[in-house]
Design brief:
The protein has one helix and nine strands. The chain has one helix spanning 3-14, and strands spanning 33-36, 39-46, 50-59, 65-72, 77-80, 85-86, 91-99, 105-115, 123-132.
Amino acid sequence: MRLGSLALAAVLAAGSLTALPAASAPAAAGPRISVEPEAFDFGKVLQNKVLHKDFVIRNIGTEDLVIDRVSTTCGCTVAEGYAKLVKPGQSTTMDVQLQTRTYNGRVERKVLIRSNDATRDPLELKVQVTVLQQ
């Protein structure tokens, strides 16, 4: 009987099977964008407020990540303060601001990040809020 079979028999006899930790995956070839978080809910907020949330953009690839363009789905949302070039293994922070204005009820806006990562172009972030009347 082989050693692997003996180990498996011992584990089965013990009545439990625990997975071994997976080896770290190598970085994906080329530029690869990752954002934390990809969505954020501000909760319940009054009208005429400016809300801020920082999103961390990481390059988990092997080549430089170039952020070509960032756009939003409304003039009430702004994304700024990020580096346009992110080296492999590095990150940059993007400040997303949402103005509640005189909205009432549930509001959802998107931020679209266009980059040289062909697997996630564009990358879509979502911010949402429930706006309460004053």
